[in-house]
Amino acid sequence: MKVYKAIIFILFSAAFLFSAAQLSFADPEEAPTAWPNPDLLVEAEDLPVLLLEPDVVLVDMRAEGFAEGHIPGAVWFGGIPALVNSTHEIEQFLVDADAFQQLMRTIGVRNDSRIIVYDEGNGLGASRLFYALSLYGHEQAAVVNGGIAAWKALELPLEKEAEIPIRGNFTVNFDESRSCDITFLLGNLERDDLVVLDARSPEEFDGSEVRSERGGHIPGAVNLEWRKFVLDGEDIPFFRSPDEIAALLADNGITPDKEVVTHCQSNVRGSHAFFTLRLMGYDSVRAYEGSWFEWGNRADTPVTGSE
């Protein structure tokens, strides 16, 4: 494995000499402000060096495409569907603690592993796994900015062979501070220091697009669609700069002194918002796993907007 990773590094070095000039800023003043939690976001050009570290586990969170070509050294997880509890009454609900522990052990995750996750590029799959890891007590995780799209843009090598990981010893340590269920939300909606961040589209938020029995949104919620955090529509959907995201959050009253609860229809987009807030240095962040699928399908929950 060490020899294999050394080969990756050599290949990277040659490619980086060419790509660095394209990626560097012409004017130092144009360089973005640093991320408040920089360890949570990895740039594709930094991956080959990071993969030399023995405790790093690189996870491919795409649902498909692994066999056709993946970043060398990655293990395939199966995408967002692999995280779904198929027997749960709530759509796309996260797998329980025991199941998640076994899944992580199968792909070689240890308690001391640093997990780096990539997906197609928009961050949805990678953020979903990041949230699951946070909920189940593993904070040593990061997302690749731009996913495999960023890696390919650098013309770095892909491989088709799949590594067989050594089974890990990952142990769940459930973090209550990252969890939000409907009871918590109903009991805390009136708090001045709590913000509900709805990461759905504006149409879902105002009720003109209905995906549950009722449309609309949780009273007092702020609509900030997950797409606004990335360069949506670009070839590579990188995260926007720290300054741009900070301005978006501040303009919507989502400040670091408040506790933030993220959600969407099934907490996939909500997980993306969760990751973004953690990246921006927000410490008090939860995700409402039941999301609008649960809230909008119950008759006893308050709703603002079209029903």
Q: What is the H-and-E element order?
A: HEHEEHEHEHEHEHEHEHEH
Ends distance = 57 Å
- What is the CATH third-level topology name of the largest domain? Oxidized Rhodanese, domain 1
Number of helices: 10
The poorly predicted ranges are 1-6, 17-31
What is the CATH homology-level superfamily of the largest domain? Rhodanese-like domain
Query: Which strand order does the major sheet show?
Result: 1-5-4-2-3
Please give the number of β-strands.
Answer: 10
CATH A-level architecture of the largest domain? 3-Layer(aba) Sandwich
Distinctive features:
307 residues, alpha/beta, Oxidized Rhodanese, domain 1, 2 domains, five-stranded parallel sheet, globular, disordered N terminus
Protein model, in words:
- There is one protein chain.
- With 307 residues, the chain is α/β, with parallel strands linked by helices.
- It folds into 2 domains: 2-153, Oxidized Rhodanese, domain 1; 176-295, Rhodanese-like domain (Oxidized Rhodanese, domain 1, 3-Layer(aba) Sandwich), CATH 3.40.250.
- It has 10 helices and 10 strands.
- It has helices spanning 2-23, 47-50, 97-106, 124-135, 147-153, 182-188, 202-206, 242-251, 268-279, 291-295; strands at 41-43, 56-60, 75-76, 114-118, 141-145, 179-180, 194-198, 222-223, 259-263, 285-288.
- The strands form 2 sheets. Strands 1-5-4-2-3 form a 5-stranded parallel β-sheet. Strands 6-10-9-7-8 form a 5-stranded parallel β-sheet.
- Helix 4 (124-135) links the parallel strand 4 (114-118) and strand 5 (141-145).
- It comes from Cyclonatronum proteinivorum.
